[in-house]
Amino acid sequence: MKNYLNVKCWILALGPLLFFSCNPQDSSDKSINKERGNVKLPYDDPAFKGKIGRTYKDSEMDWPEFPSPPEGAPNVIVILLDDVGFGMTSTFGGSVPTPYLDSLASEGLRYNRFHTTAICGPTRAALLTGRNHHNAANGFLPEWATGYPSYNTLIPRSTATIGKMVKYNGMNTAWFGKNHNTPDWETSAAGPFDRWPTALGFDYFYGFNTGETDQYNPVLFENTVPVEPETSPEEGYHFMTDMTDRAISWIHGQKAIAPDKPVFMYFAPGAIHAPHHTPKEWREKFKGQFDHGWDREREIVYARQKEMGVIPADAKLSPRNENIKTWDSLSEDEKKFYALLQENYAGFMAFTDHEIGRLLEAIGKLPDADNTLIMYIVGDNGASTEGGLEGTLNEIKALNGIQSQLSDNLKRADEVGEPGSEPHIPVGWAMAANTPFPWAKQVASHFGGSRNPMVVTWPKVIKDKGGIRSQFLHVIDVLPTILEATGMDAPDFVDGVEQKPLDGKSFVSTFTDADAPEIRKTQYFEILSNRALYHEGWVAAHQHTLPWRQDIAPGYENEVWELYNIEEDFSEAVNVADQYPEKLEELKAMWEEEAQKYHVYPLDDRGAARLTVPKPSLITGRTSFTYYEGATRIPEPVAPNTKNTSWTMEAMLETASGHKDGVINAIGGSSAGYVLYVKDGYPTFEYNFFQDKITKIKSSKKLPDGMASVKIDFAYDGGGRGKGGLFTLYINNEKVAEARVEATVPARFGIDTFGIGEDTGSPVTKSYKAPFEFQGKIAEVNIELKPEKKS
Question: Span of the secretion signal (predicted)?
Fold first, then answer.
């Protein structure tokens, strides 16, 4: 079959019939189009080259040629892990055995100067579009979106994804796992679906639409339809295993039907982002292995990295972060709990390697395994410090700006990694995971946030097995590399929209030449006003916010910049700003130029406060809501916002004796939320304040038979965010219970959803077993918000 680049085809559907035609173009036409910069996707419909007579007897058929990748194009598998530090996996000198990643690296190349944006959503946008994250409207995360073109997280049609490019060239495409590139307010079953994976060029999607999900009780979608796991956590369910099974099944199905047709797979686990949900047998493998502490861990990993050659022999270990206590200064309780969190974190990484190993084994058995390009990026940013200085068992609480206390965490130490927990390591372990570099996730100014390992294999092409590559690369370079490897051109128009030029450059040259010239001489970085500029071996850096305290920033008038010569100082260990002030000023000026070129402004160093910035929404301005049975899996951004205000919920229920129990309405999950339910006939309301305090309000009377009203009213104290108030429970307008809460969730309940008639995902409370479907009939549920009048 001819390459589709040389043909024009049309397809006409008439009832159950399909009519096709093709008009082959000569090569001169194609070259003229290239010279004019006129590569358009999808390709024009081809002209019919047959003959149409009065009847079929005096007519000649002409079938069209369908889109097909250029001859010899490989399968492409892009694997992207979440929140993994440079010095965590054994493949790059870390203490967590990752035998499958080790094996892959032994068959291909390890890249030790590959860079991300320092946070997940922006890295993923840059990966998918081949443009810098601000150019792709993803200057920060969807939940923190603001109404500026570079920060609204609406990937422009002018920055089409790799999915669309290869799909329109005839490759089947699939996306498994995390999608953090659909705007927060567009992730419900009501859409719009323009920026879901299935509209971004992916034929199939199986995963979740947020920054993280409960690995035991995930919020899942298949394409655009919400689905529930087929088994429970008690039966051994874990999303990492589930998505791997789905990916293997998909690629087996593709190759069974069309073994010679290359495919594109984007495999993006939620692992090892918090919550660190680790099966018990995996976390127990690391029992006692981190008792030496994070300071010694950095030294151990650093020495191993030098011995392995993944960092230069003259590389220094960057200075320890002065914000972190030394391990030796900690109490025995602190050491015990922090080591436990690290064992769990390491177990999650090892378990993830095991599951991806199953996928790699399946790929290795494909009929065209030799012609399969695997690009395995070990983290979308460095290890995360969002667990705070003391770690946490409720990461959502930390993201709301409320830090857990050690005394609270110790009470629940035996829950680490189990369903219902949301553990996150303390800052000290994150810094150790980023060895030998300074800082961590969010801090785009330094390599601890932005340098991630990458392993690439392509047996047909890459022969330098086990080789190391040290060219300076960025995640925007992945897409152009895939296009060159598959023989495809970057389009000038996609779906009729003129495209922004690609910001990335192909590094295919490094596949066969360890000394291939640098493709990237300059690259800017920015996240939350943490900034850096790389240029020809130098890095100017300004660390602006503390990633575990986003509300602390120096103010733009008090900025301090550092300077590193990374040709001589691989790990950014020696700040030479005082020695080369003119070079620093030169790079700072270049950063300003790059910021203008790639639309970085306006800078914004607000942290959790951006969660409450008004955003487009299906519920904007609404204070009255009516729901019916079956309204489930509604994301928090498009559910009634009952936070920081007074509100009332009234449910009209029809029940019979012995069939009254179940959830009426729930939002959130084990991290935080509320639920109105009936148990043993008694209406009950529970408010979960980050697991610290669960307030239970149980009716003094049972729900009567027949039609009845159950109402919960909340009178908010007012005076700011997260304040307390009074909950009152009614049956048929008769008060049956009340209770005060001294604090409420100020920003987000978490990673779960809103639903009527059942509590999907992780349960808000342990008073019932989810989903605890309502036994009676819910005629309707009405919610009224009562915002404070502004003076």
Answer: 1-24
Sequence-ordered list of residues with C-beta below 8 angstroms from that of 549, at least 6 positions apart, any chain = 607
Q: Which residues, in sequence order, are bridge partners of residue 648?
A: 713, 784
With contact defined as beta carbons under 8 Å apart, do 619 and 641 qualify? Answer: yes
Question: Given CA atoms 714, 715, 718, 724 in this order, what sign does their dihedral have?
Answer: negative
Q: What is the mean pLDDT of residues 577-592?
A: 98
Q: Tell me which of 19-28, 99-108, 526-535, 778-787 is least confident.
A: 19-28
CA-based angle 206:110:113, to the nearest 5?
A: 95
Higher pLDDT, 617 or 216: 216
Tokens representing 142 are 């969807």
CA 79 vs. chain centroid, Å, equals: 13
Sole residue written with tokens 């349960």? 763
What is the Cα–Cα distance from 59 to 671, expressed in whole angstroms?
Answer: 69
Beta bridge partners of 127: none
- Here the tokens at position 627 are 């729901």
The tens digit of pLDDT for each residue in 117-133 reads: 999 999 999 999 999 99
- If you search the block for the tokens 């010239």, which residue do you land on? 517
Model confidence band, residue 9 (pLDDT cutoffs 50, 70, 90): very low
Q: What is the pTM for the complete model shown?
A: 0.93
Place of tokens 């840059």: 126
Separation between Cα atoms, residue 239 and residue 572, nearest integer Å: 37
State phi, psi for 714 to the nearest 5 degrees: -120, 120
What is the distance of C-alpha 353 from the center of its chain?
A: 18
Domains within the chain, CATH numbers bracketed: 4-58 (no CATH), 75-513+520-527 (3.40.720.10), 530-611 (3.30.1120.10), 619-786 (2.60.120.200)
d(CA 342, CA 337): 9
- Residues facing residue 204 across a β-bridge: 174
